[in-house]
Specification:
Oligomer: single chain
Strand content: 5-15%
Shape: elongated
Structural class: mainly alpha
Largest sheet: 3 strands, mixed
Length: 733
C-alpha cells in the first residue's frame, strides 16, 4: 500500500503562444495605477476587481512581474507620502487620531491591492524571493510614516506623555492607545520593541526611581508597600489594556527593581515601621504584602527570613536569660509558648505556611531554649502545673491543646534525658499525692512522649501507672485477709513502688506513731508472705494522711497532711506543749524537712493548726509549739501543704545533673560499641560524629565525654588504638 505525496496547488501559465500589443505593459499598468489611486481615495466601489485581477494576471504571465512590482512600490510610496504630510499637519491630540485614520485607510487599501495582485503574490514573488504585497505595504508604512523624521520622535513622545499623564491620575483615550500600539505590533515585534517598548521601559525606570525615592523619604514601610503594590497593579492593568502581553513581565521587573529591590534593606530596617516593628506589633496585613511583594525580588524572602530569625533569637535569648523570668518557671514556659504561637500565626497568616520560614523559626527556638540549661526542668514544671488538680477554667480539651504546644518546645530540647528525669519526679509527686487532674491527660502525655522518643523513653513512666494499679489490688487483698483491722485502727492505702521505675530519693526513716506503725508492720508481714524474695522500704517522705481533729473551741476538721506532718500532729494527742528538740527526738525527721513541716503547720495563715512561741518566721531549737485551740476554717477538709521551693535548690540541681551525666556514660559507650562493631576501624572524628548522630534524639553528647568513654573502652579491651595512626581505633571482638 503506497501513499502519494500531495502536491501544493499552483496556477499554471498558458502553454500556447499569444501575440501581445507592444504597449501592453503601459496600458495595463495605467489601468492598475488608476485603480490603486481610486482605492486610496475611497472610490473603490466603481471598480471591477475581476477585470483588474485579469490585467495583473496577464502582466505577470507576459513576464512583466519585475516592472509591476517596482511600479507598485513607487505608487504606494507616493500615496503614503501624501498620507504622511496629512499626519504631520495634525496638531495636538488630533495627531494620533489622524495617524490611526490613515493607518486604517492604508490597511483597507492593502487588502484590496493584495486581492488584485493575488496571482503575482502566488507565482512571481515566491520565485523571485520578494516580499509579499501585504507585507510590502506594512514595510512601506513603517519606513515612510512611522520612522519618518517628523513622525518617529513625535509618535514616541506622544505615547509616553499619555502614559505619564495616566500615571499621574489623568484619564486618557485608552482605545486610541490600544489601536496605536497594535499598529506597531502589526508592523513586527522588532518595531514594537525598538520604537516603543524599550524607550517605554527606560522612561518608566526613571519615573519609578524618582517616585520611590520621594515616597521612601516621607512614608512608613507599610504605606510605601501599599503604594508599590498599587503601582504594580496599575502597570499590569495598563499592559492588559493597550500593550503586548509580553511587556507585562518586563514592566513588572522595572517597577520591582526601582521600588523594591533598590530600597529593600532600607525598607526592612526602617525604624518604627520596618520588618521588626511589623513582627512585634503583629501587622499581619503589612507582613502579607511584604511577603508577596518580595517574592519577586532575588533574595527577598531569604532576607526577610534572616531578619526574622535574628529578631526571634534576640528576643528569645533575652527571655531565657532574664533572671527575673527564671523566678517563675510556669510563666517562663508560658512566655515561650506565647512567642511560638505568635510567630506560628504570622507564618500561617502572612507567609503562606512557608516551610522555609517554619524551619527557620524552629532553628531559632532550638538555639535560644538551649541557652538556659534549666529549660528541661522548667518545661516539666509547666506540664506539672497543667496536669495537677485545681486548674482554673480548664477542661481536658484545653489541657490536651496545651500538651501539644509543650511537645513543640520539648522537640527543641537537646537534653531530653534531663527532661525525663524531672518529668519522672514531678509525675511521681502527682500520682502519689493524688493530685493528677486526669488519668486520661497523664496517659495522653505519655503517648506523645513515646511517639516522639520511642518506647525506651517512657517504659519506666508507664511502669509507675502499673505500680499504682497493682498497689490498689494489694491493699484490697490486705484488708480482705485482715477484716478486723477496719475498726478503730488507722486505715492505710499503700503504694508499692518498683525500684528503678520511680525516682529514688535518700530517705531517713522517721518514727511513725504506734497506731500507724502497728498497721504498717501487719501490711509488711502480709506482703512479704505473699511475695517471695521481695524487700519493702518505707518512703515516709512521699506519703500523705487524713486526720480528723477536734480543736479546743469545739470546731471539727479533717486535715490532709504529709506523713511527716501527721507524725508531728499525733504527738500532741498526749502533750500540750512540745519544743523543737522534743519533736525532733520523738519523730527522727531530718532537720531540713522538720523545719519546713513546722513552718507549714504553724506559720501559714488560715492553716496554722499549731501555735509557735516566740512568733517568728525561722524555726530555732528552743521554740515551743502548742495546738492552736482558736483555729477556724470555713472548710471542713483543710489541706495543709508543705512549705517548699518549686524549683530545685542548687545542691539538688547539681545532684540531678550528676545523675544524668552518670546515666549518659553507658549510653555513649553502647553507641560507640555499636558503631565500631559495624565499622571495625574508624578515626576519632568520625566516631564523634556518628555517636552524636545516634544520641541526638535523647541528648547532645559532649565530645570530651566521648573521648573519655573511648579511653575507658580501651582500658577494658573493647577497642585498641592503631599502632601506625593513633587517631584510628580498632574494634576487638
Amino acid at each position: 500500500m503506497s501513499s502519494q505525496k500531495k502536491r501544493p496547488a499552483r496556477i499554471e501559465p498558458f502553454r500556447h503562444k499569444v501575440e501581445t500589443d507592444p504597449k501592453f505593459f503601459e496600458k495595463s499598468w495605467k489601468k492598475l495605477h488608476d485603480a490603486i489611486r481610486e482605492i486610496y481615495n475611497h472610490n473603490a466601489s466603481g471598480l471591477s476587481f475581476e477585470e483588474l485581477y485579469r490585467t495583473a494576471y496577464n502582466m505577470v504571465l507576459y513576464k512583466h512581474g519585475p516592472a509591476l512590482y517596482d511600479n507598485l512600490i513607487k505608487t504606494m510610496t507616493e500615496h503614503l507620502q501624501e498620507m504622511r504630510r496629512s499626519i504631520e499637519a495634525a496638531q495636538g491630540g488630533l495627531f494620533l487620531e489622524e495617524l490611526q485614520r490613515k493607518w486604517d485607510d492604508h490597511n483597507k487599501a492593502l487588502q484590496m491591492i493584495r486581492d488584485v495582485l493575488m496571482y503575482m503574490d502566488r507565482t512571481y514573488i515566491p520565485s523571485s524571493k520578494k516580499t509579499a504585497v501585504f507585507d510590502l505595504g506594512l514595510e512601506l508604512w513603517r519606513d515612510t510614516i512611522v520612522r519618518s523624521a517628523k513622525i518617529h520622535g513625535r509618535l514616541l513622545d506622544t505615547l509616553l506623555d499619555l502614559i505619564h499623564s495616566e500615571r499621574m491620575g489623568d484619564v486618557i483615550n485608552r482605545s486610541l492607545m490600544r489601536s496605536t500600539t497594535k499598529m506597531l505590533m502589526d508592523l513586527g515585534s522588532s518595531v514594537y520593541q525598538d520604537d516603543f517598548e524599550r524607550p517605554f521601559l527606560e522612561v518608566s525606570a526613571s519615573f519609578y526611581s524618582g517616585e520611590s525615592q520621594q515616597f521612601i523619604e516621607c512614608c512608613a514601610c507599610g504605606e510605601y508597600l501599599k503604594k508599590a503594590q498599587r503601582r504594580l497593579d496599575e502597570e499590569a492593568e495598563r499592559v492588559s489594556q493597550y500593550m503586548d502581553a509580553k511587556t507585562d513581565e518586563k514592566i513588572t521587573a522595572v517597577v520591582v527593581k526601582e521600588t523594591l529591590t533598590n530600597h529593600m534593606q532600607r525598607l526592612f530596617l526602617m525604624e518604627n515601621s520596618g520588618l521588626v516593628s511589623m513582627l512585634v506589633e503583629d501587622k499581619y496585613e503589612d507582613l502579607t504584602m511584604m511577603y508577596n511583594l518580595f517574592r519577586r525580588v532575588p533574595d527577598g524572602h531569604s532576607t526577610i527570613k534572616s531578619i526574622m530569625t535574628s529578631h526571634v533569637k534576640e528576643t528569645g535569648k533575652s527571655l531565657v536569660t532574664d533572671p527575673e523570668r527564671m523566678k517563675d518557671p510556669v510563666d517562663f514556659v508560658q512566655r515561650l509558648l506565647n512567642e511560638k504561637d505568635k510567630y506560628d500565626n504570622i507564618i500561617s497568616t502572612s507567609f503562606g505556611n512557608d516551610k522555609g520560614f517554619q524551619n527557620a523559626l524552629n532553628s531559632s527556638f532550638e538555639y535560644f531554649i538551649n541557652l538556659n540549661n534549666r529549660s528541661p526542668e522548667f518545661i516539666s514544671l509547666y506540664v506539672d502545673d497543667k496536669l495537677r488538680k485545681g486548674m482554673k477554667d480548664a477542661n481536658e480539651e484545653d489541657v490536651e491543646t496545651v500538651l501539644d504546644k509543650v511537645m513543640m518546645l520539648f522537640r527543641y530540647l537537646q537534653e531530653k534525658d534531663l527532661f525525663e528525669k524531672y518529668y519522672k519526679q514531678h509525675l511521681a509527686k502527682r500520682l502519689l499525692s493524688g493530685r493528677a487532674a486526669s488519668d486520661d491527660s497523664e496517659r495522653s502525655m505519655l503517648v506523645k512522649l513515646k511517639t516522639e522518643c520511642g518506647y525506651q523513653f517512657t517504659s519506666k513512666l508507664e511502669g509507675m501507672f502499673t505500680d499504682l494499679k497493682t498497689s490498689q489490688d494489694t491493699t484490697q487483698g490486705f484488708y480482705a485477709a485482715n477484716p478486723s483491722d477496719t475498726g478503730d485502727a488507722p486505715l492505710i492505702s499503700v503504694q508499692i513502688l518498683t525500684t528503678g521505675s520511680w525516682p529514688t530519693q535518700p530517705c531517713s526513716t522517721c518514727n511513725l506513731p504506734p497506731e500507724v506503725l502497728a498497721v504498717s508492720e501487719k501490711f509488711r508481714a502480709y506482703y512479704l508472705g505473699t511475695h517471695n524474695g521481695r524487700r519493702l522500704t518505707w518512703q515516709t517522705n512521699m506519703g500523705s494522711a487524713d486526720i480528723k481533729v477536734t480543736f479546743g473551741n469545739g470546731s471539727k476538721h479533717e486535715l490532709n497532711v504529709s506523713t511527716y506532718q501527721m507524725c508531728v500532729l499525733m504527738l500532741f494527742i498526749t502533750a500540750d506543749c512540745l519544743t523543737y528538740r522534743d519533736i525532733e527526738q520523738a519523730t527522727a525527721i531530718p532537720p531540713i524537712d522538720l523545719k519546713r513541716c513546722l513552718q507549714s503547720l504553724a506559720l501559714v495563715k488560715g492553716k496554722n493548726v499549731l501555735r509557735k512561741e516566740p512568733m517568728s518566721r525561722d524555726i530555732s531549737a528552743d521554740d515551743s509549739f502548742y495546738v492552736n485551740d482558736k483555729f477556724t476554717s470555713k472548710l471542713f477538709k483543710v489541706k495543709i501543704g508543705t512549705v517548699a521551693v518549686q524549683k530545685e535548690s542548687e545542691p539538688e540541681k547539681m545532684e540531678t545533673r550528676h545523675r544524668v551525666e552518670e546515666d549518659r556514660k553507658p549510653q555513649i559507650e553502647a553507641a560507640i560499641v555499636r558503631i565500631m562493631k559495624a565499622r571495625r576501624v574508624l578515626d576519632h572524628n568520625s566516631i564523634v560524629t556518628e555517636v552524636t548522630k545516634q544520641l541526638q534524639p535523647r541528648f547532645l553528647p559532649n565530645p570530651v565525654v566521648i573521648k573519655k568513654r573511648l579511653e575507658s573502652l580501651i582500658e577494658r579491651e573493647f577497642l585498641e588504638r592503631d599502632k601506625a595512626d593513633r587517631k584510628m581505633y580498632r574494634y576487638l571482638a
